[in-house]
Here is the input.
Amino acid sequence: MKQIHPIPPLYSASSRVLILGSFPSVKSREQAFFYGHPQNRFWRVAVEILGCGIPRTVDEKKRLILGNRLALWDVIAECDITGSSDSSIREVVPNDISGLLEKSGIKTIFVNGKTAEKFYLRYTEPKTGIKAVCLPSTSPANAAWSFERLCEAWSVIKEYI
Here is the structure.
């Protein structure tokens, strides 16, 4: 079923690092904010690696991201997708990542998982010329990665902010 990305990019002029997912889950689309599924470990990992308190509201999550010179968005602007299943993604229209980069101080891009990497390599890297660093997905579907291993892998972000 055709879905249009409902969440604008979260960034500021001081953002230095962009974290890209593939496309928002059903829960994220319902909440109109990134990583809305309670089992997604993104916010727990962010808190752990940035050494801050757990954000409970969307406003607190925005302050956490922007206060650490980060930016959030997704590679895909619209696609056919069944539920939240990355493997069902078809008919992709990419987001204008180049346009976002022109409006910010972003120099480094990380992708959250292999699906985001696949679509970044196909649609975005040829336009931006920026290689993205693939981090293991924080999705609950990535059960092979423990929380501790995720935090260790994701801690590389601290070097760039």
